[in-house]
User: What shape does this take?
Amino acid sequence: MTDTTLATPARDRMAFLGDPRLLRKALPAVSLVAILIAIFVLNERAMSYRGLDLMLKYAVPIAFATIAQMFILTVNDLDLSIGAFVGLVACIAGTWLVDQPVLCILILAGCIASYAAIGALIHMRRLPSIVVTLGMSFVWLGIAVILMPTPGGMVPDWLKALMSWKPPLVPFPIIACLVIALVAHVLLMESSYGAVLRGAGGNATAIDRAGWSLLRIRMSMYALAGFFGVLSGLSLIGLTTSPDAHIADRYTLLSIAGVILGGGEFVGGRVSPIGAVIGAVTLVLTGSFLIFMRISPDWQIGAQGAVLIVVLALRALIKLREAK
Amino acid sequence: MNALAARLGNKPWLLSFAGAFAVWLATILFTEGKGGGEMITAALSFATFTVIVGIGQMFVITTGPGNVDLSIPSTIALAGGVAMKIMGGQDSLIWFGLLACIGAGLAVGAFNYALIRLLKIPPIIATLSSSLIVMSVAISYGRGLQIKPPPSFADFTTAQISGVPVLSICAILFAIAMAIILERTIYGRATLAIGQNVRVAHLAGVKVERARCITYLMSAAFAGLCGALLAGFSGGNALNMGEEYLLATIAVVVIGGTSVAGGRANVPGIWGAALFLYLLVTMLNTYGASAGIRLVLTGLIIIAMITLAGGDKPSR
Assistant: This one.
């Protein structure tokens, strides 16, 4: 669409910016690099193994939650319960993972199955995902509060050891984020069923006519989201000593923001797993940036909102050029 | 049974009132008739706030799929703080405070609409981003301090006439006015038309963008007003004051019989659903449910009500 238009004077002047489609694809990475440069300029000690390790510690659970949200967004739904769900997983693992690991794994598998069931309910009754997941967020939070009324619980040593692992050369959070991004990429973007899954978000009728079960697709996506939510909760308790029900409340908004920052569109099955992880990391770094700027933590969430708006504004500008 | 279901299907808002009544009955049967009146009074006063913001949310949701105002909790927090700070505990400044809280709401609404229009982003994302910024402004502006409302304002928000809260009477009149606006004005009809099919509405000469703009301004302004009233009612503003109103507004709109797909709205249902939600929590409290069980049951019952009320009918 973009290549067929003739070169107008306005286009010539901006030609050095290259193909707008490419530009849009590069935008998440450019935002990440921009915020990294800003941080390094403010504090050059941050540009070290230790600095990156510290700054990106919490990027791993947030990246998992963002990927979970991305699966839901792929089928044009929105999950407002992922934060509460991650909190519940943290409480379940904190209660049982040390003493009764088999029982704990069975319960977590049950959690993933209930996520798939929610997907089925939403699909079969044509319910709005926002309302159902908002209701489910109360359910998850309620169960977590019953399990763990006060912060506490035990975290297995192997999980703590894994999350604080110091591999040579590259800090663990970076390796973990790369692996998460690649696995999700292969699952959704490279596999043939992944194309069908994305297609269900783009044109459900076409996928339906081609003989695929839309019900099964939606259930798979919700199950995948549940699975990544479980991984998010497990990696989160590996970083903290005492899980509690409200530990991941912020993850709901952060995960949506991460997917959108990473180039995900709200409709049409247009998502990018690698972008989503980049988006999550960018949001985590925004916090460090504010600290180095000596800006009051009051503005932390506001800054995340501002980053989101700036990136969306840039994307709108690029789209404007694409349309020409 | 089928006839009943069909009648409820035609008037989905009746379901919410029926639900409210059933829950109330279940509670006073448990208490053997004690406290039934007080329960209604309390339900009326708490439902009032949900109704005020819920009507704003209803107009937003009516404009079509993807339209939801997620900035309501932050707006309530900010406007509550602004109103209490400007009133400064003095009766003479009440009107300024009320104007200021509506002004703060309108500012948030204008910002929301600007994001939707200029950046062409889905309203959910726009209101989500702005809610983050508004919350930061509220935190920074209020410094986390609680300011007490002026005495007359506190009296007004808690006044009752023979068991009926004055604020609820105002909110009933307000709901009637909004129902007339929805059904009888050009703006209201335009909003419904946009929700049914935005392209057709545009081709039919409906001023789509103007209606959308008014809708987002209204929703935020109502949230602003609610913030001030809530601060007066509860003896001061608090940052987490609006938290529960995100689920509450969406739930009352949907349970009240407004279509989430847009194009079909219902004002009386919002009152029924708001009463239902409050009475439900009261019932669980009376039965001695713990905080966790209360949360689980509230979530499940909301989902059950929505499943019962049915999602988007594909035929339309």
Summary: Chain A has one domain: 25-34+49-323. Chain A has 15 helices and no strands. Chain A touches chain B through 46 residues (CB under 8 Å). The CA atoms of residues 41 and 220 of chain A lie 44 Å apart.
